[in-house]
Amino acid sequence: MKTLIRIALAASLAAGLPARAALEVFACAPEWGSLVKELAGERANVYVATTATQDIHRIQARPSLIARARMADLAVCTGAEQEVGWMPMVRNQSGNDKIQLGKPGFLEVANHVPRIEVPAVIDRALGDVHPVGNPHIQWGPRQIQLGANEIAKRLSQLDPAGDAEYKRRLADFTSRWSTATARWAEQGAPLKGVAVIQHHKNYSYLFEFLGMREVGWLEPKPGVEPTSSHLNDLVQQQQAEPARMIVHSSYHAPAPSKWLAERIKAPAVMLPATVGGTEDSRDLFAMYDAALKRLLAALGS
């Protein structure tokens, strides 16, 4: 009798608990965490390893990251050497065979999308050059859609029982993303041809989408902090190619942008590096909305 009571009590307690998600997902960056949530809903628990106020190139392979990677059924990262300084160590130290190279549980989105700025010559003397192209693919609307397609495939592969749900959510996301992309293109029309200087090449995909022209960078070489001599060179260059604004990301120190802005009389603009970089960039849609709003405000100023 006591055994029956215990079984009934356990069943009653279990009935009041939410069902365990089918998948544990380790997202290297907020953009992929946001996208997985769009596509998986309640079928995945998503852990995001970094924030928009961190330089993802320079993350440390902390024990907490290794512990979370040990639990993962799927790891979603950018690739293109974006996380080369820390993710290989996290993956190897986790001892999790599911997320090793070549396994279905490890996805590098950049391998499945077109990349820009692929260097013709690899020379580390030129700075922190990415040999397979610019890795900041979260700022390309087309790249996000292609990434969503691949993530949905991988979710279905790892969780076949959820295939119909993943396909339904992908179709819904695709419809909303297509509508939003058309809206961003229309809203951003005044930015076409506008000259811009950016701190690091974070937004090159966005500028290509909007038709903006990059005429300089605060970094003298990729990954090298701005120097006074280089900033002064940018001031001198303004006579030939004047910039309408200077853009830096949510993880960059604003001082170099402000210094240059004061001297060339152009606004300094901070954009979210990724989801969560500003209060109004809570997801991928809001991230693009926030960026367009700030760029257009700077143009109007």
What does this protein structure show overall?
- The chain has 301 residues and is an alpha/beta fold.
- It is 43% helix and 12% strand.
- It has 10 helices and 8 strands.
- The strands form 2 sheets. Strands 2-1-3-4 form a 4-stranded parallel sheet, covered by helices on one side.
- Helix 9 (255-264) links the parallel strand 7 and strand 8.
- Helix 2 crosses helix 5 (141-158), helix 6 (163-187) runs parallel beside helix 10 and helix 8 (228-237) packs parallel to helix 9.
- The longest helix has 25 residues, at 163-187.
- The protein is globular.
- The protein starts with a helix and ends with a helix.
**Into which percent range does the helicity of residues fall?**
40-55%
Arrangement of strands in the largest sheet: 2-1-3-4
Question: Largest sheet at a glance?
Answer: 4 strands, parallel
Uncertain spans: 1-18
Question: Architecture of the largest domain, CATH level 2?
Answer: 3-Layer(aba) Sandwich
The CATH topology of the largest domain: Rossmann fold
State which percent range the strand residues make up: 5-15%
Distance linking N and C termini: 78 Å
Number of domains: 2
Shape: globular
Give helix and strand order, one letter per element, not per position. Answer: HEHEHEHEHHEHEHEHEH
Q: What is the assigned CATH homologous superfamily of the largest domain? A: Nitrogenase molybdenum iron protein domain
Radius of gyration: 22 Å
Helix and strand content put the structural class at alpha/beta
Broad CATH class of the largest domain: Alpha Beta
The average pLDDT is 92
